[in-house]
Write a structure and sequence with these properties.
Layout lengths: L1 H16 L5 H18 L5 E4 L13 E9 L2 E10 L7 H6 L3 H21 L1 E9 L6 H18 L4 H24 L5
Parallel strand pairs: 3-4
Antiparallel strand pairs: 1-2, 2-3
Helix pairs in contact: 1-6, 2-6
């Protein structure tokens, strides 16, 4: 029985971290939820922006979500990403520091996207969450700013609502990935 549970656990972890399968769907669900929250805050957004805007970075797309006039009149490019704290490169640090995998992914995303965003006059914000629900530092700051705007407009506390909505999407997408992996296809 222990061996079977071990195999199921490994398969479940693989299902929520594998680059193939429902990972893109999960990222898109989170992206769409963030877009919805931004619109509640009356923040104008564009989705999937950035391909071929500069010749030197034609194959990169730094903006899952683009927010014009976000910080001091500069446009913000948000890149939504899910990472695993069980990744071999971050496993040891993740055991000691909460959100270590998210912080490492934020740094990598900055390395990949800051040059293109700089060239375009944008500020880059990685919106990173660990597959078990811990959000990165920059995502936390972004959500606080959005919640503040919603609170001013609606006179309600919304930060917990934002995290609730996003974490619900994350859990649903993870469950879909796991079930798709464990259930044989029906013909």
């Amino acid at each position: 029985m222990r061996y079977v549970l071990s195999l199921v656990s490994m398969d479940c972890h693989h299902a929520v971290t594998c680059k193939r399968g429902d990972v893109v769907t999960r990222d898109n669900r989170l992206r769409d939820c963030i877009v919805e929250v931004c619109r509640r805050a009356h923040i104008g957004v564009q989705v999937e922006v950035g391909n071929n805007l500069t010749p030197s970075h034609s194959k990169t797309r730094p903006a899952d979500i683009l927010i014009p006039n976000w910080v001091m009149g500069r446009t913000a490019a948000l890149d939504v990403s899910v990472t695993s704290p069980l990744n071999p490169q971050t496993l040891l640090e993740a055991g000691v520091t909460a959100t270590a995998a998210a912080l490492t992914t934020e740094e990598r995303k900055h390395d990949e996207n800051d040059p293109k965003c700089s060239e375009l006059g944008w500020v880059f914000i990685p919106v990173v969450v660990e597959s078990y629900g811990a959000w990165g530092r920059e995502a936390t700051l972004l959500f606080s700013a959005i919640a503040s705007r919603i609170a001013i407009l609606s006179k309600s506390v919304t930060l917990s609502d934002i995290y609730g909505r996003l974490n619900l999407q994350l859990v649903r997408a993870n469950a879909t990935s796991i079930l798709a992996r464990l259930m044989p296809p029906s013909y």
